[in-house]
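Exercise 7.
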Amino acid sequence: MIDFDEEIQKFQPSLEVEDAEDAIYNNDIPDITDLMKNIISGDRKDK
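Solution. The predicted structure, written as tokens, is:
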């Protein structure tokens, strides 16, 4: 039978998950809300 407490203690997340987490949280790309606010206010960054 599997000892879940022992298995959880041995668990280490994969590096891919940590890399993906960093990429998601450090992302500075505007979301749809930011884009809509810019369109409504008439702001453009490429002026």
